Amino acid sequence: MSAFQTLDDLDPAGKRILLRADLNVPMADGKVTDRTRLERLVPTIAELTERGARVLVTSHFGRPKGARVPDMSLAPVARELARMLDRDVGFAADCVGDVALEASVALENGQILVLENARYHAGEEANDPQFVQSLAVLADAYVNDAFSAAHRAHATTEGVAHVLPAYAGRLMQAELEALEHALEAPERPVMAIVGGAKIASKLDLLSNMIARVDHLAIGGGMANTFLNAMGIDVGKSLCEHEMADTAREILKRADELGCEIILPSDAVIAGAFKAGAANRKVPVDAVPYDQMILDVGAGTVMGLAAKLENVRTLVWNGPLGAFEIAPFDKGTNGVARAAADLTARGGLLSVAGGGDTVAALNHAGVADRFSYVSTAGGAFLEWLEGKTLPGVAALSR
Prior knowledge:
Elements: E1 16-20, E2 27-28, E3 31-32, H1 36-50, E4 54-58, H2 75-85, E5 90-92, H3 97-106, E6 112-115, H4 122-126, H5 129-136, E7 141-144, H6 155-159, E8 166-168, H7 170-184, E9 190-194, H8 203-210, E10 215-218, H9 220-229, H10 244-257, E11 260-262, E12 266-270, E13 279-283, E14 292-296, H11 298-308, E15 313-317, H12 330-344, E16 349-353, H13 357-364, E17 372-374, H14 378-384, H15 390-393
Parallel strand pairs: 1-4, 1-7, 4-6, 5-6, 7-8, 9-10, 9-15, 10-11, 15-16, 16-17
Antiparallel strand pairs: 2-3, 12-13, 12-14
């Protein structure tokens, strides 16, 4: 992490710290229904307050588009954060202006204040310089602990980092270190597992992966498109027939770069995607015209598990099948458990994240057994695509 300043470089005692968090958590009936993002924020808040900082937490919530939408207030999230920390957490009814400034000045060492939804102001998403200055006057230093929002060049994620001394929080640091170890300076051989419905949505990711990894396993609906491009009839499976030329180009480019593309050798098929549907396993080149591929078969699972035995780094994005409905979760579950077992034995660094990946690994019961599972969503995907994240770039020394 030599390119970034972390909390190790900051003496926060007595300083007002503007902490960019991701408080955009699931809510129902005014209550937080998933505390994962809050739980991952706790270590940074706890460390800052224990070291005498005056912490002002800023975040977005939903998409109010510059208007005050009562249902998108961060007040309920502040209350939940207080329960989790088992201490008082103040709340300011605005994130800038007199209300925020007065609340900031009143903070004492070790106290916490949550500022109202930054997206109540159009200047947040516009990264407006005047809005940035209005935020900067509240604090002495800036800490970004919201990797999940780092792909946005907004005032609270990027603008303020150019005005105040800027540091990475512990969650941001963990994300960046995990990704650096997985893709920037990995221990080889490196394998990537990429699943999902469509090639069109992951073209950049696939193009970046074949240049960085030694083995690329493709599953989900995307695999059907590749099989089709190779002349294999996939029946009525989800398939982008119009992307056949693109798929062939990716296969050709991977071969030129020395990246092995691994496609399913067998599949679990059914006539409909629904619970209890009659299903069976067939080789991928024996799918009837009226059936659809809904999961990889046991042979594919065994092959991928065997391949994992010989790799040192794994990057995983996307399920291998329609894991939401049994028994079409068996493929993803089987490979995920094999990866988790290898990780536990110390032979594999496993980093996963993005979209349905976290849900799939939780479903398989192994999310806590991977080396690192990112909940960052879009930011994780853009990093895998090789893109520069504005919120990360702004922290560079």
